[in-house]
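Troubleshooting log. The previous structure file for this entry was overwritten by mistake, so regenerating from the original sequence record. Sequence copied from the archived sheet and checked twice against the printout by T.R.
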Amino acid sequence: MVTKILDFCGNKVTISVDHGKLCRCHWIGEAEEESAVVLFDAPVEDLALMADVEKQLKEYFEGDRKEFKLPLELKGTPFQKKVWEELKKVPYGVTISYGELSRRIGNPKAVRAVAQACGANPVAIIVPCHRIIATGGKTGGYTGGVEHKIRLLEIETF
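Regenerated output below.
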């Protein structure tokens, strides 16, 4: 596994690639940054993918990319994977509620479980859980911090 810390305008993200697939992308704070492990003794395919992930994220943060084209390794429960697959269908610049997302997966009463699955998303930004908001248009929570969610939504609306 190759892990790297990236900085986008002071916002630090750690990404991990393993066996030619992106398996982790999440926001980190200063305490986490000190404990992050960066390994560069990795297969060429992982290093190439790491460079591609970094390039695509940079383009996204600059407002030049609306869709990610990356091989993903999403580890989770069948329910979580179902939610994450549906998240990938929410278009750039569009927000929907947790309730709407639960309806889209065919389980309209699972709003809390859907919110928990969003919070467990291993590849934030790439699988756009930030596009899911609370009923009534409130931002709702975000594992990476509400300030990051707002920043991502701002990128997508300008």
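Strands lie at 2-8, 11-18, 21-27, 96-97, 132-133. Archived copy saved in two places this time.
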